[in-house]
Design goal:
This protein has 7 helices and no strands. The chain is mainly alpha-helical and 125 residues long. The longest helix has 18 residues. The chain is globular, with a radius of gyration of 13 Å.
Length: 125
């Protein structure tokens, strides 16, 4: 898949890390979007749905421990906080979350247009 190849090349990560990271991003989106909106995201990029199964076990509702608690008090970190646990289990640092999300959003925009990108962006901010 082109998105996975781009992540591997750009971020110098392993293929399984790229697949797991995208899967985790999708799990958060699946949990926070309506069924119709999530179907629209999946439909924008062929093969994207296959990556859901590559996500590590994590709570897509989590907000990142103490940082999540602080974030809730001061306006929240939304879906990004939920990705902390998943990325850690993949051996990826928290600094990789924003890099992954940026590449995924850009890819979704190119494939599905700005409306689909915005659906994903709103649950990951």
């Amino acid at each position: 898949m082109e998105l996975i190849d781009e992540l591997v090349k750009t971020l110098n990560v392993q293929r399984d890390q790229a697949e797991g990271g995208v899967g985790a991003v999708l799990k958060v989106a699946e949990n926070r979007l309506s069924g119709d909106d999530f179907s629209q995201v999946l439909g924008a990029v062929p093969g994207l749905g296959d990556l859901l199964g590559k996500a590590p076990q994590f709570d897509p509702n989590a907000t990142g421990g103490i940082m999540g608690l602080l974030a809730k008090l001061f306006g929240g970190i939304g879906g990004l906080g939920a990705l902390l646990e998943a990325f850690k289990s993949l051996g990826l640092s928290k600094s990789m979350i924003m890099k992954f999300v940026g590449i995924v959003l850009n890819f979704v925009r190119k494939q599905g247009g700005p409306q689909v990108e915005e659906l994903l962006r709103k649950v990951l901010k």
